[in-house]
């Protein structure tokens, strides 16, 4: 491109045969997507051999032209060269639009302008491809934890659920390649069924501001997007091979993309992972192995004014759950908590027995866009998802472990239509409607009463968001959304429960039929949820930006919160929902100050949120059964308040040495009862030094210190059980959080150019270098076993 | 744009209608296969029979198990006994004891008297490996006393063990308590 430029300059300077013509031809070259001026675009007039270059405002000027028809060629280093024809009769001023961001064109198809900013008044935290690749052998939740304010709710180390500013599950919307993920996210032990390796970038929005995705993201939105396709004739790919000492296994992931300059593209991606039981410092975490196979296919056409995309992904995994976490009742729980080591340890094996989860997730999508005028785009999308979740428990009479205790099939259809339009230079507007049908089927052949009932759910949503560029520095944003939900549920209640709750009088009309000690009911709740956002971003100077956002989110209770009733085997507790719940309404105010600098950058992000009718689950007593005593956990609604702050800082000490720091803290309070909220992440601080070794061949080394404080604010949910052997009551301490812990991680990486197209990156990472034994408050298995010991991960990445 | 006004609702409606046309069969109830509702301990010495029953027909529902004792437990007596587990949510009721005896190496029944209760119990049947199973027991009563008698069924305990629950480990499948009186 440089040669072209200098050539053009040469042509300009050697210009030109003057004619006796006096017409002026002026104009501007701008980016077709956001109308920003393109600087340094070359406009050549064919035949005359004259050319000019656009200035800082994207303007150009030709003088002394004759009345004639001219053929022009407009080019820019980052754009496809375009040819135009003009008829010059008089002085003419004309604007040319070029397709900018050539390499990122696919983003336009996927997100349109929203790829760049999904919300204007709230800081978006981006997980870069580099980080995603580092965690290639792990899970989505692991990669997200690199963002300040994002923690995880774990069941062991392979079931990792993201927690944003203390909130998780149904309060987080996950957008996977433009599709809202529907994978039974309500369960605390249900991790997102997404292969991290399908993502090229992941954006975290810590709030409900991105209303185009959902109105119920009380906690936030996670947007995973694939790597954009390069718009030229090419075939390229990437393979990452990882092997690790802890889990004695590894993963391989490959992606191959074929692209054409005319806009067609195709991509195939696949991942396989296999791990044995993981280990702590002292013992094997028996039955924690993992097996995962995923693939995705993507094809489509990108043109400037139209395009479409088809996408299908398949995700399948089998996750072993620590054997020692399977308990019979309160007494077993007491013994397991008392014991320093898991109550069940066997030799390390690759076999995944019971308890375990087996999940298959299908996702298919078709989307298209049409730019019906230069500033307006209409988009259509349809997606289909099916999530089949099997949970296998330790069961009597099932030595093989092939009879599932939970067998749920969740099928979702979703269609969406949206219009994005720049009404003028100041206001841009996006609006859309979505329709959603979801069906849950719980297979009765499990021989275990349904945890989640059969239901059909119909949803309809409509939204509008306006961005207003008040001045060069000030952008305001406001939006609103309305969602209507109708559920048609068939739920079996135990007659004794139905009566003990007084439902027999309150909801008499819901009863369909009675079967012995069970009663079939047909609740048909509807929910109307309004949500809104408003805020602004202000650019003080080149370095400082301030974001302020207020968002109102409204979330309908999920099937688990409404209809749970009975023993949740995998949690060893009785869980009770409530038919009477209404929507949870959250108001969140966030402020973000950001400084971007060459040497020093920082972000500080304080927030406060008030959640009315916050739905939480907590222990309310102990219930006697033939199996002994079980703790009863009941959902209830209360008013909650969360206050916290996240900070990020990086300091470039010199060209080779970089220091970074992250800190986050959140305090959750049940205002109604004046006590702490359960399962709030503890404060944590991460310090990191990265150094480029001064060798001829560059080698990066890094050392990271992660310190997790002890959570000192927690509700007291302890209970007592009767021990027949000693005739005493024993306190079961399920509340006290584990101690603070400190982990050291190190990494080193280097690159080799195998040939001009093939690059090899080798990296070695050691996590928990000191083999510290620790337990994390937000790991559901913390009662029974330590967290992972040292892990050495060797990774080879080949780009070709 | 005018057309859109019609297209959008049409698409939405058609999707909804397609999905609505499903037949409205009501789901079938699930009868818990593995649930143990009833524990029956039967102790016999000649014509003296004592039957201890714990019955919880709503399983993990809100009602606690109901304990009943029929017959009088006499001091200084040796009883031959059986411990049975039933699922009475089904008709006829399912004999879970058979399953327990089939998978004898994976189960063990513990009979645990409180310290004030003068009673000892010994398993009289063993699993395939010669370790006690305990669905058949021998109970010897001592002097007149009263206290709690606990019956526990453990799944996948450590075998052999020293006879205490702590050493046995495994998971509790059953744990019921009876208020027992030994009379003269």
TrEMBL record, chain A:
<dbReference type="Pfam" id="PF07715">
    <property type="entry name" value="Plug"/>
</dbReference>
<keyword id="KW-0998">Cell outer membrane</keyword>
<keyword id="KW-0472">Membrane</keyword>
<dbReference type="Pfam" id="PF13715">
    <property type="entry name" value="CarbopepD_reg_2"/>
</dbReference>
<dbReference type="GO" id="GO:0015344">
    <property type="term" value="F:siderophore uptake transmembrane transporter activity"/>
</dbReference>
<dbReference type="InterPro" id="IPR000531">
    <property type="entry name" value="Beta-barrel_TonB"/>
</dbReference>
<feature type="signal peptide">
    <location>
        <begin position="1"/>
        <end position="18"/>
    </location>
</feature>
<feature type="domain" description="TonB-dependent receptor plug">
    <location>
        <begin position="127"/>
        <end position="221"/>
    </location>
</feature>
<feature type="domain" description="TonB-dependent receptor-like beta-barrel">
    <location>
        <begin position="329"/>
        <end position="769"/>
    </location>
</feature>
<dbReference type="InterPro" id="IPR012910">
    <property type="entry name" value="Plug_dom"/>
</dbReference>
<dbReference type="InterPro" id="IPR039426">
    <property type="entry name" value="TonB-dep_rcpt-like"/>
</dbReference>
<dbReference type="GO" id="GO:0009279">
    <property type="term" value="C:cell outer membrane"/>
</dbReference>
<dbReference type="InterPro" id="IPR037066">
    <property type="entry name" value="Plug_dom_sf"/>
</dbReference>
<dbReference type="GO" id="GO:0044718">
    <property type="term" value="P:siderophore transmembrane transport"/>
</dbReference>
<keyword id="KW-0813">Transport</keyword>
<keyword id="KW-0798">TonB box</keyword>
<keyword id="KW-0812">Transmembrane</keyword>
<comment type="similarity">
    <text>Belongs to the TonB-dependent receptor family.</text>
</comment>
<dbReference type="Pfam" id="PF00593">
    <property type="entry name" value="TonB_dep_Rec_b-barrel"/>
</dbReference>
<keyword id="KW-0732">Signal</keyword>
<keyword id="KW-1134">Transmembrane beta strand</keyword>
<dbReference type="InterPro" id="IPR008969">
    <property type="entry name" value="CarboxyPept-like_regulatory"/>
</dbReference>
TrEMBL record, chain B:
<protein>
    <recommendedName>
        <fullName>Type 1 periplasmic binding fold superfamily protein</fullName>
    </recommendedName>
</protein>
């Amino acid at each position: 491109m440089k040669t072209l430029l200098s050539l053009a300059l040469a042509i300009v300077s050697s210009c030109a045969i003057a004619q006796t013509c006096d017409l002026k031809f002026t104009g501007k070259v701008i980016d077709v997507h956001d109308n920003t001026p393109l600087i340094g675009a070359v406009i050549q007039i064919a035949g005359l051999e004259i050319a000019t270059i656009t200035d800082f405002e994207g303007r150009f000027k030709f003088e002394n032209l004759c009345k004639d028809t001219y053929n022009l060629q407009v080019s820019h280093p980052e754009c496809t060269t375009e040819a135009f024809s003009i008829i010059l009769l008089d002085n003419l001023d004309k604007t040319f639009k070029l397709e900018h961001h050539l390499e990122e064109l696919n983003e336009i198809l996927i997100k349109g302008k929203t790829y760049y900013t999904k919300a204007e008044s709230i800081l978006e935290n981006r997980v870069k491809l580099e980080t995603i690749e580092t965690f290639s052998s792990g899970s989505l939740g692991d990669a997200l934890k690199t963002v300040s304010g994002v923690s995880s709710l774990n069941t062991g180390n392979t079931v990792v659920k993201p927690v944003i500013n203390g909130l998780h599950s149904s309060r987080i919307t996950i957008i996977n390649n433009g599709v809202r993920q529907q994978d039974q996210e309500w369960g605390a032990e249900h991790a997102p069924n997404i292969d991290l390796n399908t993502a090229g970038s992941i954006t975290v929005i810590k709030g409900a501001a991105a209303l185009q995705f959902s109105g119920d993201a009380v906690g936030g939105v996670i947007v995973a997007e694939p790597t954009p396709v390069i718009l030229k004739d090419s075939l390229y790919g990437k393979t990452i091979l990882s092997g690790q000492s802890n889990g004695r296994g590894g993963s391989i992931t490959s992606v191959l993309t074929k692209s054409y300059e005319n806009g067609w593209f195709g991509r195939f991606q696949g991942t396989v992972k296999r791990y044995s039981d993981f280990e702590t410092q002292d013992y094997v975490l028996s039955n924690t192995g993992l097996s995962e196979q995923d693939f995705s296919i993507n094809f489509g056409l990108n043109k400037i004014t139209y395009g479409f995309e088809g996408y299908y992904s398949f995700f399948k995994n089998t996750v072993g759950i620590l054997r020692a976490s399977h308990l019979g009742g309160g007494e077993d729980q007491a013994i397991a908590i008392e014991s320093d080591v898991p109550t069940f340890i066997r030799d390390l094996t690759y076999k995944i027995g019971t308890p375990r989860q087996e999940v298959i997730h299908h996702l298919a999508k078709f989307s298209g866009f049409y730019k019906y005028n230069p500033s307006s785009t209409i988009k259509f999308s349809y997606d289909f998802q099916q999530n089949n979740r099997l949970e296998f428990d330790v069961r009597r009479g099932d030595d093989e472990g092939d009879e599932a205790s939970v067998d749920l099939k969740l099928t979702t259809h979703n269609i969406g239509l949206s219009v994005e339009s720049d009404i003028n230079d100041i206001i841009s507007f996006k609006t859309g409607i979505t329709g959603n049908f979801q069906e849950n089927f719980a297979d009765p052949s499990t021989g275990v009463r349904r945890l989640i009932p059969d239901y059909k759910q119909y949803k309809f949503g409509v939204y509008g968001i306006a961005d207003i560029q008040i001045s060069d520095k000030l952008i305001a944003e406001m939006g609103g959304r309305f969602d209507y939900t109708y559920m048609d549920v068939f739920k079996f209640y135990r007659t004794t429960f139905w009566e003990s709750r007084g439902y027999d009088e309150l909801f008499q009309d819901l009863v369909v039929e009675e079967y012995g000690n069970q009663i079939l009911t047909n609740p048909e709740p509807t929910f109307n949820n309004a949500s809104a956002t408003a805020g602004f971003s202000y650019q003080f100077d080149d370095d400082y930006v301030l974001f302020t956002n207020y968002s109102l989110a409204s979330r309908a209770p999920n099937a688990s919160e409404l209809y749970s009733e009975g023993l949740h085997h995998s949690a060893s507790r009785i869980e009770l929902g409530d038919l009477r719940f209404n929507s949870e309404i959250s108001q969140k105010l966030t402020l973000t100050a950001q400084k971007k600098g060459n040497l020093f950058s920082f972000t500080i992000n304080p927030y406060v949120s008030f959640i009315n009718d916050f739905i939480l689950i907590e222990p309310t007593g102990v219930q006697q059964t033939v199996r002994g005593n079980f703790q009863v956990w009941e959902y209830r609604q209360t008013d909650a308040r969360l206050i916290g702050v996240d900070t990020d800082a990086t300091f470039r000490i010199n060209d080779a040495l970089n220091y970074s720091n992250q800190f986050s803290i959140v305090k959750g309070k049940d205002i109604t009862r004046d006590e702490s909220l359960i399962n709030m992440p503890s404060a944590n601080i991460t310090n990191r030094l990265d150094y480029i070794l001064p060798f001829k061949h560059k080698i990066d080394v890094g050392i990271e210190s992660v310190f997790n404080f002890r959570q000192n604010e927690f509700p007291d949910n302890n209970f007592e059980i009767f021990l027949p052997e000693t005739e005493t009551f024993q306190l079961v301490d399920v509340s006290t959080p584990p101690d603070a812990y400190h982990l050291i991680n190190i990494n080193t990486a280097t690159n080799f150019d195998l040939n001009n197209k093939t690059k090899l990156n080798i990296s070695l990472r050691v996590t928990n270098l000191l083999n510290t034994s620790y337990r994390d408050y937000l790991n559901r298995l913390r009662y029974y076993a330590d967290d992972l010991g040292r892990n050495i991960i060797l990774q080879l990445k080949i780009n070709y | 744009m005018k057309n859109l006004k019609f297209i959008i609702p049409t698409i939405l409606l058609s999707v909804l209608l397609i999905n609505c046309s499903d037949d409205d069969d009501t789901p079938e109830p699930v009868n818990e296969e593995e649930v143990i509702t009833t524990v029956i301990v039967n102790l016999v010495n000649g014509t003296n029979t004592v039957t201890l029953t714990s019955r919880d027909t709503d399983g993990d529902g809100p009602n606690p198990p109901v304990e009943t004792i029929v017959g009088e437990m006499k001091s200084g007596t040796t009883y031959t006994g059986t411990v049975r587990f039933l699922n009475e949510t089904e008709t006829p009721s399912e004999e879970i004891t058979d399953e327990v005896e089939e998978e004898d190496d994976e189960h063990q029944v513990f009979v645990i008297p409180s310290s004030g209760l003068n009673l000892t119990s010994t398993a009289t049947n063993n699993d395939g490996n010669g370790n006690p199973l305990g669905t058949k027991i021998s109970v010897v009563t001592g002097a007149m006393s009263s206290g709690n008698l606990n019956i526990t069924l453990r799944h996948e305990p450590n075998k052999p063990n020293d006879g205490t629950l702590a050493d046995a480990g495994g998971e509790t499948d059953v744990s019921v308590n009876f208020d027992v009186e030994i009379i003269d």
